[in-house]
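Practice record 12: protein with beta-D-glucopyranose.
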Amino acid sequence: MKKRFMALAVASVAALALAGCGGGETAEETTAAAAAETEAAAEDAAEETEAAAETEAAADAEVANKDKPLVWFNRQPSNSSTGELDMAALTFNDNTYYVGFDANQGAELQGQMVRDYIEANIDTIDRNGDGIIGYVLAIGDIGHNDSIARTRGVRSALGTGVDANGAVNSDPIGTNTDGTATAVQDGTIEVNGTTYTVRELASQEMKNSAGATWDAATAGNAIGTWSASFGDQIDVVVSNNDGMGMSMFNAWSKDNNVPTFGYDANADAVAAIAEGYGGTISQHADVQAYLTLRVLRNALDGVDIDTGIGTADEAGNVLSDDVYVYNDEERSYYALNVAVTADNYQDFTDSTKVYAPVSNQLDAEAHPTKNVWLNIYNASDNFLSSTYQPLLQNYDDLLNLNVDYIGGDGQTESNITNRLGNPSQYDAFAINMVKTDNAASYTALLSQ
Ligand code: BGC
Ligand code: CA
């Protein structure tokens, strides 16, 4: 438009100048003006075509960041005090999902596993013979609904839970060797006609001074403190995860033959079952890591979201419904959990192996490479770094996704969001928040 205006202006100035020389408009002058105008028009047309082509290419390649596929994983957008799901984050756009595991089913399994162990070993478990089965509990993150569920699961199964607003109280109690804490109660277990008391001797959120939760080193220190003051009362050690559980096992319980229970089925914990680690829960990270990337792949391909999940894809990838559930209202995929004990641990020794039913390579032409930004909230989280991320790295190849892995410090959201400076470089996003309340710090960046 601008060029055309200038060409016309030049033509008129020329015409005026000629006119100023006296005499009327000559044929020559008219021709010059007309030629200038034709030229301008041609230029204009060419420009318009160019612009149209540009717009079309942009529509093809440039999806607005706010409309790109987004998956939350491992930490479900939710209120850290009430557990209420953050539906605004979960429905951020039409291609937004959460991938995690069924926290309640897993928590129930963990509690049952501990109880089964106590019952099966009742003749030897009470180390000081006082008739009380004492346990200590390492809590991961009091504001993380998966951690809360596990604390509740253990307390429910052992009869030590008390009600708080319609659910089992999940607060840490500090120490309770005398059984007077109000956030828990003494439970009972009856085996072969004998009734035993079960007591939560101590529990604590394992958060380090810098603010990192699920902190294994903190748990290792805690068992040191606990065992120094009431060690012979501790018959069982329970942890919200294997990272903390193994830290306690290595620091104390292994040498003292005290069964220790965790969660995650990390390879080191599974191997430790041979050395007396009591057991763990597989949260089917092999299924979760697949789902995390698969929902993005499907959204990018513009196919039904169930492709390669509940419905086999052309390569034969499909999940059976005994390993996951999808809750449409919550926009959430939940993997199902399996208890791993001395009975079956041999099947779980390789925690980073892709799940066979979804291990088929996608065709690179039908599913061209796309770029994904993915973060791990804490680069030194045992489960995420030793189990989940290696699995993601196996699946990204199978799904033709080029993933940038960003590792956070586990404490500050901005440490991660600062590294989402140019979302336009990516086709899709996979997010693992530091704090489950903080989804908006990410969606704000995508909405800019
Ligand atoms: C795992 C923990 C991990 C946490 C991180 C949980 O699902 O069990 O081990 O620290 O996720 O968010
Ligand atoms: Ca005892």
